[in-house]
């Protein structure tokens, strides 16, 4: 278990000690998709969903999700996030809502899980707000797109 950072030498789970790490500027981008019927997209565009404005509510939910990542994911560190942005766009061709997040912070760890959590919570909110009109939606493709800062930078291909 010594190759895994979240296990102690005896194999029990532990939070990584970041005491000695330097504070660096970090950022991450993530994305996901909620597949739905064309009729649901039409209801979104006409703003006739029973629960209100999908884009505003899902954006706020995604921001709150990123800020609460440490409460949702065991062993994540609480972080002071400098910036979170969530975008939601209708994709008529793929029949659904594309969601993306961008998170920036200065810290000893983090940004990836916060960006992913932002997308996941926004997607769950889209689902919740549309479930009255569409029982067949599918949340899919939640993934990290880019991470910068810390030990390494990478763009997911």
**Which regions contain 5 or more consecutive residues with pLDDT less than 50?**
none
The gross shape turns out to be elongated
What name does the CATH topology carry?
Alpha-Beta Plaits
Give me the secondary-structure category.
alpha+beta
Question: How many structural domains can be distinguished in the coordinates?
Answer: 1
Strand order of the largest sheet: 2-3-1-4-5
Instruction: Please report the distance between the alpha carbons of the first and last residues.
Output: 29 Å
CATH level-two architecture: 2-Layer Sandwich
Number of strands: 5
How would you characterize the overall build of this protein?
By secondary structure, the chain is of the alpha+beta class. The protein has a single domain, classed as 2-Layer Sandwich (Alpha-Beta Plaits), CATH 3.30.70.640. The chain is 29% helix and 31% strand. The protein contains four helices and five strands; from the N terminus they run βαααββαββ. It has helices spanning 38-45, 54-67, 69-72, 112-130, and strands at residues 24-35, 81-91, 96-107, 138-148, 154-155. Strands 2-3-1-4-5 form a five-stranded antiparallel sheet, covered by helices on one side. The longest helix is centred in the last third of the chain and has 19 residues, at 112-130. It starts with 23 loop residues before the first strand and ends with a strand.
Brief account:
This protein is of the alpha+beta class and 157 residues long. It is built from 4 helices and 5 strands; from the N terminus they run βαααββαββ.
């Amino acid at each position: 278990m010594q190759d895994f950072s979240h296990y102690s030498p005896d194999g029990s789970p532990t939070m990584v000690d970041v005491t000695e790490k330097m504070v660096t500027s970090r950022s991450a981008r993530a994305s996901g998709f909620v597949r739905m019927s064309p009729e649901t997209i039409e209801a979104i565009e006409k703003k006739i969903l029973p629960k209100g404005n999908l884009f505003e509510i899902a954006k706020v939910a995604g921001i709150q999700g990123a800020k609460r990542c440490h409460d949702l994911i065991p062993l994540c560190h609480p972080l002071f996030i400098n910036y979170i942005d969530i975008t939601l766009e209708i994709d008529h061709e793929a029949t659904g809502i594309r969601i993306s997040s961008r998170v920036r912070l200065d810290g000893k760890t983090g940004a990836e899980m916060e960006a992913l959590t932002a997308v996941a919570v926004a997607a769950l909110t889209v689902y919740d707000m549309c479930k009255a009109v569409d029982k067949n939606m599918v949340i899919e493709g939640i993934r990290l797109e880019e991470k910068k800062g810390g030990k390494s930078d990478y763009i997911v291909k």
